[in-house]
């Protein structure tokens, strides 16, 4: 094998793709290819988590700072919902993570932290657990009051 995975991952990936296309399966780096494939899924989950955390943080701000509501927050909420929906449409298997309690708990923690930092409201003022379902959060007409 030419380039080592840990030396230059880009060159390694090109070489592995060429080996696969050439049918030289005995020469491929199976373990690291498998790891890279798994990382694609992890990356997709991280992106979804990030987008939902932004959405949840803005919904928290919407609920806890009604006097600060404005077009910017509304556009962020709508925009994140649209981007999340596009991601879920392109990768339907991601919908399963929305019902994963541990995953959602981590996302909620990030959202609470972001909302606290952005508003100056103490973290303890925000609910420890999310009372909104993922369906509520993604519903275009849902805005907590």
Largest sheet: none
Query: What gap, in angstroms, lies between the N and C termini?
Result: 60 Å
How many DSSP helices? Answer: 5
Estimated radius of gyration: 20 Å
Helical content, roughly? 55-70%
The unreliable regions are none
- Residue-averaged pLDDT: 95
Count of individual beta strands: 0
Q: What is the percentage of strand-forming residues?
A: under 5%
Structural class: mainly alpha
Order of helices and strands: HHHHH
Rough shape? elongated
Question: Any descriptors?
Answer:
145 residues; mainly alpha; 5 helices; 63% helix; elongated
Describe this protein's structure:
This protein is 63% helix and 0% strand. By secondary structure, the chain is mainly α. The mean pLDDT is 95.
Short synopsis of the structure:
This protein has about 140 residues and is mostly helical. It has a domain at about 40-140. The chain has helices at about 10-20, 30-65, 70-90, 100-120, 135-140.
Which helices and strands, and how do they pair?
Blueprint: H1 9-21, H2 30-64, H3 71-90, H4 101-119, H5 134-138
